[in-house]
Amino acid sequence: MSMIKNSLSRAKTAWNKFFSEEKKGNRNIIFYVLGVFLLGIIIFEGFYLWNIKEQPIQLVEEKPAVSSAKEKNGMIIGVAQEGYSKDAQGTNDSGFELNVYKSPKLVVSKNANVEISKEQFHLGKNSLKISWVKANDRSVILNNYLLTQKDKYYKLGLWVSSAKDGHFKISLNNKEQASAIAEMGVVANPANKFRYYEYNFRSPLEASNLEISAADIESGAIFIDDIKLLPLNISSDKELASIEATVVGSNQQARIGESQLAHNESSDAMSVPKTLIGQTFSSQGGNLAGASFFINKKGNGGDGEYLLELREFNESTKVFSPEKIAVKSFSAKDIDSEVKLIPIMAKLEAGKKYWLGFNNSAAKVSKENYLAIGQTDDNAAYAQGNIFLQKGENKFFTEEKDLNFSNNYIEPIRQGESVFSYGEMLYDLGKGKKRLDYQVDPADGSIALDIYGEKNISIDKAKTISLNDKDSYLAYKIETNGKKVQRLAVNNLFFNNNVHISISTDGNQWTEIFSSNAGKPGQNSGKIEVDFKKEAEDVFIKIKKNGEANSSFTGGYAILDLAD
After folding, report:
1. Is the C-alpha dihedral spanning 250, 253, 257, 260 positive or negative?
2. What number of other Cβ atoms are within 10 A of residue 511's Cβ?
3. Which of 158, 316, 384, 511 is least enclosed by beta carbons within 10 angstroms?
């Protein structure tokens, strides 16, 4: 307030100087204009200085502007104007899908090369690749990447793929100073197999830059993807210590199911074009995650794409269904060992008969170049099925032999009575507040394990889900484990050409929240927010084809705010 009084005093002095009685006879229009202008500047200065002193600086970004909001079936639906917001992730382009960090101005590296890479990725199609060189001082700074307030509490989570063990330091940086928030020990893993790491911390400073520095690691590359910064609903270090670890639904335990491991010979059936050869089996039930086969390349193995397909099998008619439950494409170049585990994801019913096998219709094969599939010469090696072939359109054959195969299943994570879906991550934010992220993403086809309903879809080797027919769709049920859903946000669903997105609270009545028939690749739904007027107990998401052109999607996620 004293600054306002001082400014008014200065204004009065200026008024007297310009308009004193002694100068009354000499006043003219110039003095009037200059006086009023100077008076306005001084008063404005006073109010401005008072305002910035009394009002603390707000570092939390505003929510994105909403272009439209409407109510449907007890839901208030708003579509954000912008395609990405820190409000959802706490970071700027956390999955590196929008290529914000291709700009050299936003990345400062020292003894490291940085690029947006398609070599490996956790979700979407890109990740941040850091190639360290041999040196003592190595770091990468992502400018304008996040936003923290001093002494506030946060959770930082990220996915990392590294071929070597190593230690890294993560720091907050505001250009004037840097302060470490985590020491990260990274465990080596196979290519494209990302591990999740997270750290809860009290921010030591106000910062907008994230710094990653390497300590004792050899030169080489690491890939970082899907970084999240989440504010915690706590206010003390004691509460920080009680934050529970995030439940990662994809960290599920594997088990071996149906199998026949004898191998005495190999089938040359795949040397004939347009042939399907596979094993029939009676399922124990559960989440099929992949299958291993003995595969030997003859010549170059054949050109083009092979398909591993899962279909229902009718024991009485000896015919498998024309509809595919799951599909995984691969090429002969992908066969790098004789015993090959091929990811293929589906929910199987106990006691039901299935056919799992290979289709070479899209491959160019010959007697010299094909894939030989290992089998046994024992007709009774696997009592629950046989080799079943189809050559051409309508030529079906059953062989009283069995393939060398092994089905791999994964078991959902359970905590007490709670069961977590493969695509879920449940974050504890403190004081009973939870956030559930559901990854609507076909990485290795694993999201298929959460399918509530589907019709005529396929997943290719690039992890793209294709909606093949005009009525093709996928529907997912998100497990909330008795929590109430207050808000849902579908964020950045990346698709090609066209798509419908609908949600439901019962799996029967669907409400459309997004529709596009752009007819172009590389589309993005942006952020769609849904507030439930009545808290929902269950949430379903459906992705459906919209239009005549081919439709596919490559990733995205949903965020749910939960309450007890």
Report:
1. positive
2. 15
3. 316
| DSSP conformational letter for 215 | -
**Residue whose C-alpha is closest to residue 437's, from 557, 563, 564, 562:** 557
Q: Are 328 and 310 in contact (CB under 8 A)?
A: no
Cα separation, 272 vs 253, in Å, equals 38
Of 455 and 386, more confident: 386
- pLDDT, one tens digit per residue, over 438-497 is 877 655 545 556 666 666 666 665 667 777 777 778 788 887 888 888 888 887 787 888
How many helices and strands in the chain, by DSSP H and E? 4, 42
Q: What is the CA radius of gyration of the chain?
A: 30
Q: How confident is the model at residue 155 (pLDDT cuts 50, 70, 90)?
A: very high
Query: Taking the complete model, does pTM exceed 0.85, yes or no?
Result: no
**Mean pLDDT within 299-327:** 91
CATH architecture of the domain with residue range 254-410: Sandwich (2.60)
Numbered ranges of CATH 2.60.120.1020 in the chain: 416-563
The CATH number of the domain covering residues in 90-243: 2.60.120.260
Please give the DSSP secondary-structure letter assigned to residue 270.
Answer: G
540 or 15, higher pLDDT: 540
Q: SS3 breakdown of the chain: % helix, strand, coil, rounded to 5?
A: 15, 50, 35
| Angstrom distance (rounded) from CA 106 to CA 100 | 8
Q: How far is CA 215 from CA 25, 166, 219, in A?
A: 79, 8, 11
- How many degrees, rounded to 5, is the angle at CA 236 between CA 231 and CA 240? 60
Nearby residues of 497 by Cβ (< 8 Å), 6 or more positions away:
517, 518, 519, 520, 521, 523, 547, 549, 550, 551, 552
Write the CB contacts of 491 (distance below 8 Å, at least 6 apart in sequence).
88, 89, 526, 527, 528, 556, 557, 558, 559
Domain with CATH 2.60.120.260 in the chain: 90-243
Distance CA 233, CA 433 (A): 7
The first and second tokens of residue 439, run together, are 């990854």
- Kindly state the helix (H) or strand (E) to which residue 22 belongs, with its residue range: none
Homologous superfamily of domain range 416-563: PAW domain (2.60.120.1020)
* Structural element, H or E, at residue 276: strand 275-282
- The end-to-end CA distance of the chain, in Å, is 47
Are 457 and 442 in contact by the 8 Å Cβ rule? The answer is: no
Beta carbons of 300 and 369 less than 8 angstroms apart = yes
Cα gap 138→481, rounded to integer Å? 44
